[in-house]
Amino acid sequence: MDLKHNCSVKLNDGKLMPVLGFGTYAPDRIQKSKVNEATKIAIDVGFRHIDAAYFYQNEEEVGQALRDKMADGTVKREDLFYTTKIWATFLRPEMVRQCLERSLKKLGLDYVDLCIIHVPVAMKPGEELVPKDDSGKIIFDLVDICDTWEALEKCKDLGLTKSIGVSNFNHKQLELILNKPGLKYKPTCNQVECHPYINQSKLLEFCKSKDIVLVAYSALGSHRDPKWTSSDSPYLLEEPILKTIAKKHNRTPGQVALRYQLQRGVVALAKSFNEKRIKENFEVFDFELTQEDMKAIDGLNRNFRYINFLFAVDHPYYPLLEEY
After folding, report:
1. Which residues contact 277 (CB under 8 A, 6 or more apart)?
2. Which PANTHER family does the record cross-reference, listed alphabetically (predicted)?
3. For a 10 Å CB count at each end of the chain, is N or C smaller?
4. What pLDDT does residue 152 have?
């Protein structure tokens, strides 16, 4: 893959996905207006792949940024690749389209480029994002992910989304869909936590064998929202080996972590609300890691996750008990 600016990968449905994406998840402490601002900066810098979700509760702000950038002539709608996700409380087949249509309404767009199932773990439907009982336990729902997938296929047929995929699925859950009788469309991608501390090499190999693109979130390991991540987690960008490689190439550890993914055929999502870092994160197309660099970074793998979804460990579809 020749990694030039705006380089894209071809999905199994023929659509193109830019190999570098801008992530828009923001912890509660970040003002929603910052998300709007950062998205506009990202587009100005060159990002064309914007990764968002119903669950992030900021699609109005992201959508406004996209519309502003289309209005001022920076981009046309067809230049952008926008991803949203069906949240856990909408996994019943009759609710999938409703979730997507809510996102479209907030965005002010007619369609998204990619719509994915956010997690395989269903929660009780309703307006609460994370429904809990009186004792504070999450209330789950049992939905066959193949039924959810069929509903997503219908959304594609309706033109509400160009492509469809999944997120946080293990290889067995992907196989459930791939082997589903009457499958109309294969998942184009599986978006999972992936960085040098958990490089997902087995899942990557599996996905490549099925023509499914692996998309890496937390690619910079910088996801430190206390709701999801314990405060004593290691700082990936402080990793001495990444720092040494970065110094050699006159780059930042973050740029090295992103470049690592691109060279192994993974689409990387980079999230930042800092203008300097947003720019830096896009400057990964004009240098190349050597085979030794790649091997050294492979050697950092320790199957460490910043996000374990431990709240869902009792759900039959909890994805992380499998090795990959």
Report:
1. 254
2. ALDO/KETO REDUCTASE
3. N
4. 98
User: Active-site residue 56, yes or no?
Assistant: yes
d(CA 260, CA 50): 20
Q: What is the pTM of this model?
A: 0.96
* Coil/strand/helix, residue 84: strand
Please tell me which residue in 25, 54, 56, 217 is annotated as part of the active site. Answer: 56
For the chain, the structural domain boundaries read: 13-319
Q: Domain 13-319 falls in which CATH fold?
A: TIM Barrel (3.20.20)
Report how far residue 140's alpha carbon sits from residue 147's, in angstroms, rounded to the nearest whole number.
Answer: 17
**Alpha carbon distances (Å) from 166 to 190, 231, 272:** 5, 28, 23
Per residue in 186-208, pLDDT tens? 999 999 999 999 999 999 999 99
> What is the secondary structure of 272-321 as a DSSP string?
-S-HHHHHHHH--SS----HHHHHHHHTT-----S---GGGTTSTT-GGG
By three-state DSSP, how is residue 2 classified?
Answer: coil
In the predicted structure, residue 225 carries a pLDDT above the cut 90: no
The pair of structure tokens assigned to 63 is 């959508």
Q: Please write the tens of the pLDDT for every residue from 115-137.
A: 999 999 999 999 999 999 999 99
